[in-house]
Write a structure and sequence with these properties.
Blueprint (H helix, E strand, L loop, with lengths): L1 E3 L8 H17 L23 E2 L5 E8 L6 H11 L25 H5 L10 H11 L10 E7 L5 E6 L5 H11 L1 H6 L3 E5 L5 H4 L2 H7 L4 E5 L4 H9 L5 E5 L2 E6 L2 E10 L3 E11 L3 E6 L6 H11 E2 L5 E7 L11 H12 L3 E5 L4 H9 L24 E5 L1
Parallel strand pairs: 1-8, 2-13, 5-6, 6-7, 7-8, 12-14, 14-15
Antiparallel strand pairs: 3-4, 3-16, 4-5, 9-10, 10-11, 11-12
Helix pairs in contact: 1-10
Protein backbone atom coordinates (compact mmCIF):
# COMPACT_ATOMS: atom_id res chain seq x y z
CA UNK A 1 0.00 0.00 0.00
CA UNK A 2 1.49 3.32 -1.06
CA UNK A 3 0.57 6.95 -0.50
CA UNK A 4 0.75 9.57 -3.23
CA UNK A 5 1.91 13.10 -2.65
CA UNK A 6 -0.05 15.92 -4.26
CA UNK A 7 0.87 16.74 -7.82
CA UNK A 8 1.27 20.14 -9.44
CA UNK A 9 -2.46 20.14 -10.09
CA UNK A 10 -3.14 20.66 -6.38
CA UNK A 11 -4.03 24.04 -4.97
CA UNK A 12 -1.68 25.36 -2.28
CA UNK A 13 -2.60 24.85 1.34
CA UNK A 14 -2.11 28.58 1.98
CA UNK A 15 -4.57 29.56 -0.76
CA UNK A 16 -7.13 27.13 0.55
CA UNK A 17 -6.85 28.26 4.18
CA UNK A 18 -7.26 31.88 3.11
CA UNK A 19 -10.39 31.00 1.17
CA UNK A 20 -11.96 28.73 3.76
CA UNK A 21 -11.26 31.14 6.61
CA UNK A 22 -13.21 33.83 4.76
CA UNK A 23 -15.92 31.29 4.11
CA UNK A 24 -16.25 30.51 7.80
CA UNK A 25 -16.58 34.22 8.47
CA UNK A 26 -19.41 34.41 5.97
CA UNK A 27 -20.99 31.38 7.62
CA UNK A 28 -20.99 33.18 10.96
CA UNK A 29 -22.74 36.19 9.43
CA UNK A 30 -25.39 33.88 8.04
CA UNK A 31 -26.59 33.05 11.56
CA UNK A 32 -27.18 36.62 12.76
CA UNK A 33 -30.83 37.09 11.87
CA UNK A 34 -32.97 38.52 9.09
CA UNK A 35 -30.52 41.34 8.38
CA UNK A 36 -28.00 38.71 7.30
CA UNK A 37 -30.28 37.74 4.41
CA UNK A 38 -30.91 41.26 3.16
CA UNK A 39 -29.03 43.04 0.39
CA UNK A 40 -27.99 45.76 2.88
CA UNK A 41 -25.53 43.42 4.56
CA UNK A 42 -23.29 43.36 1.49
CA UNK A 43 -21.87 46.83 2.06
CA UNK A 44 -20.34 45.60 5.31
CA UNK A 45 -18.54 42.66 3.70
CA UNK A 46 -15.08 42.84 2.15
CA UNK A 47 -14.67 42.42 -1.59
CA UNK A 48 -14.40 38.76 -2.54
CA UNK A 49 -11.37 37.61 -4.49
CA UNK A 50 -12.40 34.80 -6.83
CA UNK A 51 -9.58 32.68 -8.17
CA UNK A 52 -11.74 31.15 -10.94
CA UNK A 53 -9.57 28.06 -11.39
CA UNK A 54 -10.53 26.32 -14.63
CA UNK A 55 -10.76 22.55 -14.04
CA UNK A 56 -12.56 21.67 -17.27
CA UNK A 57 -16.07 20.37 -17.92
CA UNK A 58 -17.97 17.11 -18.22
CA UNK A 59 -21.23 16.28 -20.02
CA UNK A 60 -23.33 14.92 -17.16
CA UNK A 61 -23.31 13.39 -13.70
CA UNK A 62 -25.60 10.59 -12.56
CA UNK A 63 -25.77 9.46 -8.92
CA UNK A 64 -27.32 6.23 -7.67
CA UNK A 65 -28.06 6.11 -3.96
CA UNK A 66 -26.79 2.68 -2.92
CA UNK A 67 -27.72 3.26 0.72
CA UNK A 68 -28.54 6.34 2.76
CA UNK A 69 -29.87 4.48 5.82
CA UNK A 70 -26.84 4.79 8.06
CA UNK A 71 -28.73 3.48 11.07
CA UNK A 72 -32.30 2.38 11.56
CA UNK A 73 -33.27 3.98 14.88
CA UNK A 74 -32.11 7.43 16.01
CA UNK A 75 -33.09 6.77 19.63
CA UNK A 76 -30.96 3.62 19.82
CA UNK A 77 -27.91 5.35 18.31
CA UNK A 78 -28.19 8.46 20.50
CA UNK A 79 -28.85 6.34 23.57
CA UNK A 80 -25.62 4.44 22.96
CA UNK A 81 -23.66 7.66 22.43
CA UNK A 82 -25.10 9.33 25.53
CA UNK A 83 -24.60 6.32 27.80
CA UNK A 84 -21.05 5.79 26.54
CA UNK A 85 -20.01 9.33 27.49
CA UNK A 86 -21.13 11.56 24.64
CA UNK A 87 -20.20 12.74 21.18
CA UNK A 88 -16.50 13.28 21.94
CA UNK A 89 -15.87 9.63 22.75
CA UNK A 90 -13.63 7.75 20.29
CA UNK A 91 -15.95 5.84 17.95
CA UNK A 92 -13.89 2.65 18.34
CA UNK A 93 -14.66 2.68 22.08
CA UNK A 94 -18.45 2.40 21.72
CA UNK A 95 -18.25 -1.35 21.06
CA UNK A 96 -20.43 -1.09 17.96
CA UNK A 97 -20.02 -3.63 15.15
CA UNK A 98 -17.68 -4.70 13.74
CA UNK A 99 -15.36 -3.76 16.60
CA UNK A 100 -17.31 -5.37 19.45
CA UNK A 101 -15.21 -7.31 21.95
CA UNK A 102 -18.03 -8.67 24.11
CA UNK A 103 -17.27 -6.30 27.02
CA UNK A 104 -20.27 -4.01 26.57
CA UNK A 105 -20.91 -0.33 25.85
CA UNK A 106 -17.93 2.04 26.06
CA UNK A 107 -15.48 -0.80 26.70
CA UNK A 108 -14.30 -1.37 23.15
CA UNK A 109 -11.17 -0.59 21.16
CA UNK A 110 -9.91 -1.05 17.63
CA UNK A 111 -7.26 -3.55 18.70
CA UNK A 112 -9.64 -5.74 20.71
CA UNK A 113 -12.32 -5.64 18.05
CA UNK A 114 -10.30 -6.27 14.90
CA UNK A 115 -8.51 -9.33 16.29
CA UNK A 116 -11.80 -11.26 16.44
CA UNK A 117 -12.40 -11.11 12.68
CA UNK A 118 -9.25 -9.82 10.91
CA UNK A 119 -8.41 -13.33 9.68
CA UNK A 120 -11.70 -13.43 7.74
CA UNK A 121 -11.20 -10.17 5.79
CA UNK A 122 -12.09 -9.32 3.16
CA UNK A 123 -13.67 -12.42 1.64
CA UNK A 124 -15.50 -14.27 4.45
CA UNK A 125 -17.77 -11.44 5.48
CA UNK A 126 -20.79 -13.54 6.38
CA UNK A 127 -18.73 -15.50 8.88
CA UNK A 128 -17.10 -12.31 10.16
CA UNK A 129 -20.47 -10.65 10.73
CA UNK A 130 -21.72 -13.62 12.71
CA UNK A 131 -18.79 -13.21 15.09
CA UNK A 132 -19.11 -9.45 15.55
CA UNK A 133 -22.89 -9.70 15.82
CA UNK A 134 -22.53 -11.69 19.02
CA UNK A 135 -19.88 -9.41 20.53
CA UNK A 136 -21.19 -5.95 19.58
CA UNK A 137 -23.66 -3.45 21.00
CA UNK A 138 -26.89 -3.08 18.96
CA UNK A 139 -25.61 -4.68 15.74
CA UNK A 140 -29.08 -4.61 14.15
CA UNK A 141 -29.02 -0.81 14.15
CA UNK A 142 -26.09 -0.62 11.71
CA UNK A 143 -26.78 0.30 8.07
CA UNK A 144 -24.54 2.58 6.05
CA UNK A 145 -24.10 5.32 3.43
CA UNK A 146 -22.69 4.78 -0.08
CA UNK A 147 -23.32 6.22 -3.53
CA UNK A 148 -22.31 5.40 -7.11
CA UNK A 149 -21.31 8.39 -9.24
CA UNK A 150 -21.22 8.10 -13.03
CA UNK A 151 -19.61 10.99 -14.91
CA UNK A 152 -19.72 11.26 -18.69
CA UNK A 153 -16.73 13.13 -20.10
CA UNK A 154 -16.79 15.34 -23.20
CA UNK A 155 -15.77 12.40 -25.40
CA UNK A 156 -18.78 10.38 -24.26
CA UNK A 157 -16.86 7.98 -22.01
CA UNK A 158 -18.49 7.00 -18.71
CA UNK A 159 -16.35 7.06 -15.56
CA UNK A 160 -17.66 5.36 -12.43
CA UNK A 161 -16.70 6.33 -8.90
CA UNK A 162 -17.74 4.94 -5.52
CA UNK A 163 -18.35 7.28 -2.59
CA UNK A 164 -18.14 5.51 0.80
CA UNK A 165 -18.73 1.90 1.81
CA UNK A 166 -21.34 2.02 4.58
CA UNK A 167 -21.26 0.26 7.96
CA UNK A 168 -22.87 -3.18 8.38
CA UNK A 169 -21.23 -5.92 6.31
CA UNK A 170 -24.59 -7.68 5.97
CA UNK A 171 -26.57 -4.59 4.99
CA UNK A 172 -23.99 -3.26 2.54
CA UNK A 173 -23.53 -6.65 0.84
CA UNK A 174 -27.27 -6.68 0.16
CA UNK A 175 -27.25 -3.08 -1.11
CA UNK A 176 -24.23 -3.66 -3.35
CA UNK A 177 -25.90 -6.70 -4.90
CA UNK A 178 -29.20 -4.86 -5.37
CA UNK A 179 -27.51 -2.10 -7.40
CA UNK A 180 -24.93 -4.33 -9.11
CA UNK A 181 -22.00 -2.65 -7.37
CA UNK A 182 -20.45 -6.03 -6.54
CA UNK A 183 -20.13 -6.92 -10.23
CA UNK A 184 -18.95 -3.43 -11.20
CA UNK A 185 -16.15 -3.65 -8.66
CA UNK A 186 -15.21 -7.21 -9.60
CA UNK A 187 -15.04 -6.19 -13.27
CA UNK A 188 -12.97 -3.09 -12.42
CA UNK A 189 -15.62 -0.84 -13.93
CA UNK A 190 -15.39 1.53 -10.96
CA UNK A 191 -12.19 3.54 -11.38
CA UNK A 192 -11.77 5.21 -8.00
CA UNK A 193 -13.10 4.92 -4.47
CA UNK A 194 -13.53 8.05 -2.31
CA UNK A 195 -13.95 7.73 1.46
CA UNK A 196 -15.59 10.98 2.52
CA UNK A 197 -14.57 10.56 6.19
CA UNK A 198 -13.92 7.80 8.69
CA UNK A 199 -17.23 7.80 10.56
CA UNK A 200 -18.59 4.33 11.32
CA UNK A 201 -21.54 4.61 8.93
CA UNK A 202 -19.39 5.61 5.93
CA UNK A 203 -16.19 3.69 6.61
CA UNK A 204 -16.62 0.54 8.69
CA UNK A 205 -18.22 -1.39 5.82
CA UNK A 206 -14.89 -1.10 3.99
CA UNK A 207 -14.33 -4.87 3.54
CA UNK A 208 -17.47 -5.06 1.38
CA UNK A 209 -15.72 -2.87 -1.22
CA UNK A 210 -12.32 -4.56 -0.98
CA UNK A 211 -13.89 -8.01 -1.16
CA UNK A 212 -14.73 -7.29 -4.79
CA UNK A 213 -11.80 -5.05 -5.72
CA UNK A 214 -8.91 -4.96 -3.23
CA UNK A 215 -6.76 -2.90 -5.60
CA UNK A 216 -9.17 -0.04 -6.42
CA UNK A 217 -7.49 3.38 -6.19
CA UNK A 218 -8.62 4.82 -2.87
CA UNK A 219 -8.74 8.46 -1.72
CA UNK A 220 -9.05 9.67 1.88
CA UNK A 221 -8.99 13.15 3.43
CA UNK A 222 -6.02 14.32 5.45
CA UNK A 223 -6.61 13.56 9.11
CA UNK A 224 -7.20 9.80 9.32
CA UNK A 225 -5.94 8.36 12.60
CA UNK A 226 -3.49 5.43 12.73
CA UNK A 227 -6.23 2.88 13.42
CA UNK A 228 -8.25 4.22 10.45
CA UNK A 229 -5.31 3.59 8.14
CA UNK A 230 -4.64 0.26 9.82
CA UNK A 231 -8.22 -0.78 9.10
CA UNK A 232 -7.64 -0.11 5.40
CA UNK A 233 -4.64 -2.43 5.51
CA UNK A 234 -6.43 -5.03 7.66
CA UNK A 235 -9.26 -5.16 5.12
CA UNK A 236 -6.85 -6.60 2.55
CA UNK A 237 -6.28 -3.45 0.50
CA UNK A 238 -3.45 -3.85 -2.00
CA UNK A 239 -3.88 -0.77 -4.17
CA UNK A 240 -2.74 2.85 -4.24
CA UNK A 241 -3.87 5.02 -1.33
CA UNK A 242 -3.97 8.80 -1.80
CA UNK A 243 -4.32 11.06 1.20
CA UNK A 244 -5.66 14.37 -0.11
CA UNK A 245 -4.06 17.28 1.69
CA UNK A 246 -6.21 20.24 2.76
CA UNK A 247 -7.48 21.98 -0.35
CA UNK A 248 -8.55 21.02 -3.85
CA UNK A 249 -7.23 18.25 -6.07
CA UNK A 250 -8.13 17.59 -9.70
CA UNK A 251 -9.25 14.06 -10.51
CA UNK A 252 -10.41 14.40 -14.14
CA UNK A 253 -11.56 17.19 -16.46
CA UNK A 254 -14.65 18.64 -14.80
CA UNK A 255 -14.06 16.85 -11.47
CA UNK A 256 -12.18 17.97 -8.33
CA UNK A 257 -12.26 16.81 -4.72
CA UNK A 258 -11.81 19.08 -1.74
CA UNK A 259 -10.31 18.01 1.59
CA UNK A 260 -11.76 20.03 4.44
CA UNK A 261 -9.78 19.98 7.69
CA UNK A 262 -12.69 19.88 10.11
CA UNK A 263 -12.99 18.18 13.52
CA UNK A 264 -16.04 15.89 13.62
CA UNK A 265 -17.91 14.13 16.43
CA UNK A 266 -16.79 10.71 17.71
CA UNK A 267 -13.13 11.71 17.31
CA UNK A 268 -13.06 11.88 13.52
CA UNK A 269 -11.15 14.51 11.53
CA UNK A 270 -11.36 15.64 7.92
CA UNK A 271 -13.88 15.21 5.11
CA UNK A 272 -13.73 14.94 1.32
CA UNK A 273 -16.44 16.55 -0.80
CA UNK A 274 -16.69 16.44 -4.60
CA UNK A 275 -17.30 19.13 -7.24
CA UNK A 276 -18.30 18.59 -10.88
CA UNK A 277 -18.54 21.25 -13.61
CA UNK A 278 -21.30 20.12 -15.98
CA UNK A 279 -21.25 21.84 -19.37
CA UNK A 280 -23.98 24.41 -19.98
CA UNK A 281 -25.59 24.04 -16.53
CA UNK A 282 -22.89 24.71 -13.93
CA UNK A 283 -21.49 23.33 -10.69
CA UNK A 284 -22.67 20.17 -8.94
CA UNK A 285 -21.60 19.57 -5.31
CA UNK A 286 -21.60 16.05 -3.84
CA UNK A 287 -21.04 15.29 -0.16
CA UNK A 288 -21.03 12.32 2.16
CA UNK A 289 -22.04 14.23 5.30
CA UNK A 290 -20.96 17.85 4.66
CA UNK A 291 -19.55 18.26 8.16
CA UNK A 292 -17.81 21.37 6.87
CA UNK A 293 -21.26 22.92 6.44
CA UNK A 294 -23.22 23.85 3.32
CA UNK A 295 -22.04 27.45 3.47
CA UNK A 296 -18.36 26.49 3.49
CA UNK A 297 -18.95 23.84 0.82
CA UNK A 298 -20.56 26.37 -1.51
CA UNK A 299 -18.37 29.33 -0.56
CA UNK A 300 -15.16 27.39 -1.23
CA UNK A 301 -16.36 26.57 -4.74
CA UNK A 302 -17.46 30.17 -5.33
CA UNK A 303 -14.07 31.55 -4.33
CA UNK A 304 -11.82 28.93 -5.88
CA UNK A 305 -13.43 27.45 -9.00
CA UNK A 306 -14.62 28.46 -12.44
CA UNK A 307 -17.81 26.74 -13.59
CA UNK A 308 -20.26 27.09 -16.47
CA UNK A 309 -22.76 29.95 -16.42
CA UNK A 310 -21.28 30.90 -13.03
CA UNK A 311 -24.21 28.87 -11.72
CA UNK A 312 -24.34 26.52 -8.74
CA UNK A 313 -26.69 24.10 -10.38
CA UNK A 314 -27.01 21.10 -8.09
CA UNK A 315 -26.17 19.51 -4.76
CA UNK A 316 -26.47 15.91 -3.61
CA UNK A 317 -25.84 13.95 -0.42
CA UNK A 318 -25.99 14.26 3.32
CA UNK A 319 -26.08 17.97 4.20
CA UNK A 320 -25.84 17.58 7.98
CA UNK A 321 -28.48 19.98 9.17
CA UNK A 322 -30.73 17.85 11.39
CA UNK A 323 -29.37 14.30 11.19
CA UNK A 324 -31.29 13.09 14.24
CA UNK A 325 -34.55 14.88 13.33
CA UNK A 326 -34.06 17.11 16.40
CA UNK A 327 -35.01 20.45 14.85
CA UNK A 328 -33.51 23.55 16.40
CA UNK A 329 -34.44 27.11 15.29
CA UNK A 330 -30.80 27.75 14.36
CA UNK A 331 -31.21 25.24 11.52
CA UNK A 332 -33.71 27.61 9.90
CA UNK A 333 -30.77 29.88 9.15
CA UNK A 334 -29.17 27.12 7.09
CA UNK A 335 -32.39 26.50 5.19
CA UNK A 336 -32.72 30.20 4.39
CA UNK A 337 -29.04 30.48 3.45
CA UNK A 338 -29.51 27.84 0.74
CA UNK A 339 -31.46 30.40 -1.25
CA UNK A 340 -28.44 32.67 -1.68
CA UNK A 341 -26.49 30.01 -3.56
CA UNK A 342 -29.23 29.53 -6.14
CA UNK A 343 -29.10 25.74 -6.42
CA UNK A 344 -31.48 24.72 -9.19
CA UNK A 345 -31.66 21.06 -8.17
CA UNK A 346 -31.32 19.57 -4.69
CA UNK A 347 -30.92 15.86 -3.99
CA UNK A 348 -30.62 15.24 -0.27
CA UNK A 349 -30.87 12.33 2.16
CA UNK A 350 -29.06 10.65 5.05
CA UNK A 351 -27.89 13.23 7.63
CA UNK A 352 -29.84 16.02 5.94
CA UNK A 353 -32.84 14.87 7.93
CA UNK A 354 -36.38 14.38 6.67
CA UNK A 355 -37.51 17.51 8.51
CA UNK A 356 -34.87 19.52 6.65
CA UNK A 357 -35.93 18.15 3.27
CA UNK A 358 -39.53 19.13 4.01
CA UNK A 359 -38.39 22.62 5.07
CA UNK A 360 -36.58 22.96 1.71
CA UNK A 361 -39.74 21.91 -0.11
CA UNK A 362 -41.87 24.35 1.90
CA UNK A 363 -39.58 27.20 0.85
CA UNK A 364 -40.05 26.30 -2.80
CA UNK A 365 -36.63 24.78 -3.50
CA UNK A 366 -36.47 22.19 -6.27
CA UNK A 367 -35.95 19.12 -4.11
CA UNK A 368 -35.90 15.88 -6.10
CA UNK A 369 -38.13 13.47 -4.22
CA UNK A 370 -37.61 9.76 -3.77
CA UNK A 371 -39.61 6.54 -3.63
CA UNK A 372 -39.13 5.53 0.04
CA UNK A 373 -38.04 2.01 -0.95
CA UNK A 374 -35.66 -0.54 0.54
CA UNK A 375 -35.85 0.84 4.07
CA UNK A 376 -35.83 4.60 3.40
CA UNK A 377 -38.55 6.29 5.41
CA UNK A 378 -39.94 9.17 3.37
CA UNK A 379 -40.42 10.39 -0.21
CA UNK A 380 -39.27 13.89 0.75
CA UNK A 381 -35.71 12.97 -0.16
CA UNK A 382 -33.78 10.54 -2.34
CA UNK A 383 -33.83 7.15 -0.65
CA UNK A 384 -32.19 3.79 -1.18
CA UNK A 385 -32.07 2.83 -4.85
CA UNK A 386 -33.12 6.29 -6.07
CA UNK A 387 -31.26 8.14 -8.85
CA UNK A 388 -30.57 11.80 -9.61
CA UNK A 389 -29.00 13.11 -12.82
CA UNK A 390 -27.43 16.45 -13.65
CA UNK A 391 -27.22 17.25 -17.39
CA UNK A 392 -28.10 19.95 -19.89
Amino acid sequence: MTTNKNTSKDFTRRDFIKGSASGLGLGALATMGIFSYSEKRKKFLPAIERKQHDFGVCKRVKITNISETSWFDNAVLMGDIRNAGGLLVNQYDYNWPPFGNGQGLAKGSYADGIKTFRHLLPNKLEEAWEIVYEKSVNPDNAGGFAALIEMEDMDGQIHKYLLDSGWSFKWMEACFRREGIDNMLANHEIEKFFISHSHFDHFWGLPVTYKYDPTIATYIPEGFYPEDKQYIADCGFRGELTEVKAGLREIAPGFVVCSFGVPIICRVFGELSLYFNVKDIGLVCVSGCCHEGIIQLADTAFRELKYDKDQMHGIYGGLHISPFEDWDPKYDDMVIAMRDWGFEKIGCNHCTGIITAKKFIARGYNVIKGTARFGSKDEAYLGNGDIIEFKA
